[in-house]
Amino acid sequence: MKYQLRVAHLYGDLLNTYGDIGNILVLQYYAKQMNVELITKVISLDDDFQAADFDLAFFGGGQDYEQLIVSHNIQQKKTELTKFIEAGGPMLAICGGYQLLGEYYIGAKGEKIAGISALPHYTKSQVNHRFIGDIEIQNQETGQKYHGFENHNGLTYLGKNEKALGKVLSGHGNNGQDGTEGAIYKNVYCSYFHGPILARNGELAKRLLLIALKRRYPDADLNQAENLEISPTY
Questions:
Q1: For this structure, is 121 an active site residue?
Q2: Closest Cα partner for 21 from 40, 4, 1?
Q3: What SS3 class is residue 73?
Q4: Among 9, 95, 147, 152, the one annotated catalytic
Q5: Does residue 90 have a cis bond before it (omega within 30 degrees)?
Q6: 194 counts as catalytic
Q7: pLDDT tens for residues 173-227?
């Protein structure tokens, strides 16, 4: 049986500064090996997002100008995005997408920019400084190590019912203070990893795809997909 998953690429025409669209390409690569067809749709400024229409979502980041535009528009999609998240919909959110799912972030000029508060974290900013460089973390639940590259001004602090994507082994992470990087809330996975993250961490791509498959096809035999071996790419 060939499976099909519907993927929402949130603001994919605006938030592509760091090449994170590569995460979509990686999902397509592993999906093909799982005998899964991915149907991807960009959800932009003039588009509605309906939770029931998608099995998986990706939300990337961009420069301040584009993120400010998105921060205003995404309020119109807040209800359905929150519904998708609370129902257990799998999502990968990187950098600006990560910040906008939270309560707020402080922009480069000190302005407080509202997120949609679907997740309980918030983000402050550094003065004339960024966290830039290679980073390695370890997921406390699975023991898997994730490798990537961080480049962010934001200082993110996790909230109630959020777990870190991983404990920082090297690099800075969410805020350079508490040893956390990224966030997990229900089936939402957030990170500051660019590169893109899934290109170097195929196990995370596999996890997202399996969550989506099990939600859409609860009675299917997914042994082939579950047993897919992921070769190291770092």
A1: no
A2: 40
A3: helix
A4: 95
A5: no
A6: yes
A7: 999 999 999 999 999 999 999 989 999 999 999 999 999 999 999 999 999 999 9
